[in-house]
Amino acid sequence: MNDLLEFDxxxxxxxxxxxxxxxxxxPIAGAAGVRLRLADGRExxxxxxSWWCAIHGYNQPALNAALEKQLGNMAHVxxxxxTHEPAVTLAKRLLDIVPRSLRHIFFCDSGSVSVxxxxxxxxxxxxxAGRPRKKRxxxxxxxxxxxxxxxxxxxxxVTGMHHLFRGVLPKQLFAERPSCRFDxxxxxxxxxxxxxxxxxxxxxxxxxxxxxxxxGAGGMWFYHPAYLSGVRELCxxxxxxxxxxxxxxxxxxxxxxxxxxxxxxxxxxxxxxKALTGGYLTLAATLATSKVAEGISSAGGVFxxxxxxxxxxxxxxxxxxxxxxxxCEDWPVKIRRIEEGLKAGLEPARSLAGVADVRGLGAIGVxxxxxxxxxxxxxxxxxxxxxxIRPFGRLVYLMPPYIIGGDDLGRLCEVMVAAxxxxxx
Length: 425
Description:
- It is a single chain.
- By secondary structure, this protein is of the alpha/beta class.
- The chain has 13 helices and 16 strands.
């Protein structure tokens, strides 16, 4: 095992780390339920759902069986000029549960790519409409939409990676972050800066892109659904498409199947990923209304994108089993139970001097610090106490699998608060 770790440290470049001085990596030998098993036999309660995708936990029998069955038929086949049952079945399942105005589905590789696809759809739509000047995007600060180039251009320009690629990325428009908290009365004035920008730039804005209600990796901020409703109205008024990025929020995480349901609105383009396959394989989808699809395809137009592993049959089979499993269970009850447990379990952190805020929504619990967390010693403390939590920046958060029990959830919260105390918060 030491040889493995030494090779890993010397040659494997992990996400968001230095190649020369990487953060410590822990060797995982197996996983089942909500537990990760370290190579030395210790078990960790998973508080991350493997970056929010393993909503049913690990080694799930129904998902395992779906993959084994599909593997006996075919693991992969190109989607150009070919179709197959797992993709068609998945498309039907998705159209049954997403907002009804969405009628066309483009399968792609990952969440970041689904955002790239959504942006290309918006640009091609306006080109086909004879309005090529509409080629910029409007979003809000505090957002995160992925690490590929167009996606990076709409991430927060300060907390994201925008500043590292200044002069290379397209220059987009950023309104103030929604100041209206999810759990507070709505103040219409919080839309003023967004309204000012969409009015001023309506002739050049192709689309607005937002994470509905919950901003994820850009700040774990929960804003009022009425803000989202106001954005939808402004987009309609000023002839701007609305892209909603539900990669992190889709499939029940916020307490609704899709976070846009909190506002009762529907986008022109919707991005899905992460929990789509229950954490088994990478797969994403970009869904569009008939208006968008017909606009792009008018006069013989074609959409210019085609990933090699588009609609991979194994991934589609996993997604079908994942959605079936989610819908056959009483998932809203599970999410409410997790929300109650997170709010109660993390409340003691509010009294710590270094804590700026404590908040929760659905199966998401967040402690926002006043200063950035030193990740390596924080994680070492958590691992020593049997839990897996990975903070970033000033945010320490939990997004556990939906199957987690009350005792394990309580332990996650207890260790998280203790780790913050240990760090001198």
